[in-house]
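>> Question from a student workshop board

For tomorrow's exercise we were told to take the sequence and the ligand below, predict the bound structure, and bring the output to class. My setup keeps failing. Could a helper post the expected result so I can at least see what it should look like? The ligand is 4'-deoxy-4'-aminopyridoxal-5'-phosphate.
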Amino acid sequence: MIENLLREEIKGFKNYEVENVPYKYKMDANETPFELPEEVMKNIGDIVKSIRVNIYPDPTAEKLREELARYCSVTPKNIFVGNGSDEIIHLIMLAFVDKGDTVLYPHPSFAMYSIYSKIAGANEIAVNLNEDYTYNVERFAEAVERYKPKLVFLCNPNNPTGSVIDEEDIIRIIEKAKGIVIVDEAYFEFYGKTLVPYIDRFENLIVLRTLSKAFGIAGLRVGYALSNGEIVKYLNLVKSPYNLNSLSQRIALEVLKSGVLKERVNYIINEREKLVKELNKINGIKVYPSHANFVLCKFENANDVHKRLVERGILVRNFSNVKGLEGTLRITVSSADANDYLINALREILS
Ligand code: PMP
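>> Workshop helper replied:
Here is what the output should look like for this input. Compare the format with yours to find the bug.
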């Protein structure tokens, strides 16, 4: 009986699944291996004690937005914060997508563009990347012109392929688009190039960012969007009043101020280069170039490799059963220990 009440779009839906097995090294979700910065950890008791949990959080997250604005060299009116950038993708759909509207995104890319499109009842257009997982800019631009989507997602660097799209190509797409272009820069810090300087120049651009990756606080769920005042105003119309809890707002602020980012990002980039070099030496692995904190690899028998890594306590993300990603596993760059352990395991498995 209840199933009959369910919205048509949700029937037959499957949960976003995450692997829940014991592990020694977690290299499956593009998290960082680092704890909270030392100075934040040292004061964590005082930070927590200073939060008045009987009172609702600041609905506008003013202090956090000010600090994010400083970090991005924009003004706080350009910033919208969310419970992870996942929530912001959902809110963008809620504000702008009517049932049957077209949402266009690259494929393969981050699964949530499609999942939230489905929930919104959107007409989805997935534009394939090239066979080597680079962006096919011509194909993408043509599709934008042809389908006139309400929303266009670009993921830069793209998850799970690590590939990127150049600034001038993104601008070409923004200029062609009749709808809003969302440039998801979740992995910006590992790449270094951004569309943020353009947020006030175009009326139809949103840049998405997160503190879950380079800043390392995935568990606190803090994402943000950068855009012009009008779009930020519309996102505020559809959000829950207290979408970001007090603890997350406060710790995010401390982490932003802590100054460990550069050193940590350099560590991961350095580990990525080492990892790629070692992976390339092993027969039976095709490694795709990455500008993020993960590396996509193709194997002849990826399911078997995945299973044997899990047996050794290593979690990587298995995409081998996903259309367009056949035979691939995505490895998150982690600590030197974890990366070495993984390399040794792969050497053994593939020997
Ligand atoms: N965008 C991309 C491209 C991602 O890979 C992720 C996380 N996997 C997100 C957005 C969501 O990040 P969060 O909700 O943790 O901010």
